[in-house]
Amino acid sequence: MKFLLVEDNPDLAQAICSRMSLAGHVIDHAANLDETQAFVETGEYDLILLDIMLPDGDGRSFLKRHRASDLDTPVIVLTARSEISDRIDSLDLGADDYITKPFDHAELEARCRAVLRRKFGKAQTTIMVGDVTFDPVSGHVSVGDKAVTLRNRELRLLELFLNAPGQIFSKQKLTDRLFSYDDTVSENAIEVYVGRLRKHLGASSLKITTLRGMGYRLDHHE
Q1: Do residues 49 and 178 lie in contact, with contact meaning Cβ atoms separated by under 8 Å?
Q2: Do 26 and 180 form a contact (C-beta atoms < 8 A)?
């Protein structure tokens, strides 16, 4: 999954980014509202972690604009305010959840998983398409009853395809979802990762189809 973290405290931001990266997620970091707006206008995110008290304003103003624009990206508010009224205000403005600072990083990860499950309408984290089963929490992948070991970006690429079988993903869209803004990406990086994933899925009922000039699509063959 690709997250956007909006947090002006550099130490906390680094800790969250490191933790999410270790969990296999791609994460961009904005330190203020101007940077946040630039990121959402140019990128696509599965989840936004939004601090409230920012150097150039209140994060809730961004949240209000975000929802007024009919954007449905889930938002978890990070707040140092413990008053019930502040938390209710954030939820009423469209936040999907909130967590009060200081917080345990394991709890933040759990809240992210819960919000994402609701987004995809799933009670469980496990994704099954054809004979391929994927647990994004543990990173466990199996084809039939055989376990398959994938690297982090291969796992995220598989997750993208499994969440939208039959959908066409352009190279640019896959690049945007698999890499953060600060990553250096070679021109053939996506081809390399797609090629690796194809090998891992070779014995399955799934096939990654190349559509010239358009991108890639995950097809399921009975």
Answers
A1: no
A2: yes
The structural domains of the chain, with segments of one domain joined by +, span 2-119, 127-220
Judged on CB neighbours under 10 Å (0-12, 13-18, 19+), 92 is exposed
Span 100-127, pLDDT tens digits: 999 999 999 999 988 988 877 655 578 8
pTM of the model as a whole:
0.81
Find out whether 76 and 111 touch, Cβ atoms under 8 Å. Answer: yes
Domain 2-119 has CATH 3.30.420.10: no
Residue given tokens 């997250």 in the structure block: 3
For residue 139, give both structure tokens. 């990173």
Task: Tell me the C-alpha distance between 176 and 146, whole Å.
Answer: 31
Amino acid at 54: L
The CATH topology of domain 127-220 is: Arc Repressor Mutant, subunit A (1.10.10)
Q: How far apart are CA 99 and CA 165, in angstroms?
A: 33
